[in-house]
Amino acid sequence: MPSEPANAAPARIPRHLAVIMDGNGRWAERRRRPRIIGHRAGARAVNVCIDFCIERGVQALTLFAFSSENWGRPEDEVGGLMKLFLNALEREVEELDRRGVRVRFIGERERFSDKIRERMAAAERQTERNGALHLTIAASYGGRWDIAQAARSLAQDVAAGRLAPQDIDERLLGARVCLADLPPPDLFIRTGGDTRISNFLLWQLAYTELWFTEALWPELDAAMLQRALDEYAGRERRFGLTGAQIAAQTNETVE
Ligand code: FPP
């Protein structure tokens, strides 16, 4: 997949969808159940989202499963989430592979247990040649961490004499942040009612269309995702240009 759009014409279907899956805890609390039950229901909604993307031809899906800050949650919740991730890695990868999904993980992997890290690497190896959907799970991920690791990698090249500081520009830094081999997200969805980005893909979301819903993540269904796609399809993406310039580009593409 090209890393940048060939032109700024609006695409009907987002090539890359990025999602903050919020509201699992509240979903459980409303049912007077432990929060981990909400996360389990959230794992089912992940499958709804993956199925929808494959059916609609969305090529890449990036899910925020666990933020750098989530390590600070109560110990039993973090432990429950780790068990859930391990279970998902043990049970779901075969089916994802069968469906042609390529699975990758972004984030500070060193913070996970050896067992989870091994499973992550095995899932990536097993599915690396698949192309029906590029699924990225952001786990122990933070947008600031991502930009910092990209800057560190450039600094290492400078220190080794491979790169001159004056050559560092947006293109070079952009090539070192996570997901650099994918087009930037076209559409961002956040469930759970909050209207913020919460340290998700800070660099990558620069021109992404944002869509928020009050619905809690475990309530996700195809109709809700379709509403987001319909709204996205009706938006004009200008990437800093004027509406007239975009219209001219669109006509050139059509001719
Ligand atoms: C946010 O809801 C959700 C999380 C921190 C965890 C996301 C995990 C899953 C959807 C389950 C498994 C995922 C995979 C990829 C197998 P919250 O707990 O912050 O909800 P709240 O705002 O209602 O408290």
From TrEMBL:
UniProt-listed SUPFAM superfamilies: Undecaprenyl diphosphate synthase
Binding of substrate, residues: 23-27, 35, 39, 67-69, 71, 73, 190, 196-198
GO molecular function, one term: ditrans,polycis-undecaprenyl-diphosphate synthase [(2E,6E)-farnesyl-diphosphate specific] activity
Recorded coiled-coil stretches: none
Binding site for Mg(2+): 22, 209
One GO cellular component, as annotated: cytosol
Catalytic reaction annotation: 8 isopentenyl diphosphate + (2E,6E)-farnesyl diphosphate = di-trans,octa-cis-undecaprenyl diphosphate + 8 diphosphate
Its EC number(s): 2.5.1.31
Alphabetic keyword roster: Cell shape, Cell wall biogenesis/degradation, Magnesium, Metal-binding, Peptidoglycan synthesis, Transferase
Keyword Cell wall biogenesis/degradation: yes
Function: Catalyzes the sequential condensation of isopentenyl diphosphate (IPP) with (2E,6E)-farnesyl diphosphate (E,E-FPP) to yield (2Z,6Z,10Z,14Z,18Z,22Z,26Z,30Z,34E,38E)-undecaprenyl diphosphate (di-trans,octa-cis-UPP). UPP is the precursor of glycosyl carrier lipid in the biosynthesis of bacterial cell wall polysaccharide components such as peptidoglycan and lipopolysaccharide.
Family of this protein: Belongs to the UPP synthase family.
Record's protein name: Ditrans,polycis-undecaprenyl-diphosphate synthase ((2E,6E)-farnesyl-diphosphate specific)
UniProt organism field: Lysobacter enzymogenes
Organism placement in taxonomy: Bacteria, Pseudomonadati, Pseudomonadota, Gammaproteobacteria, Lysobacterales
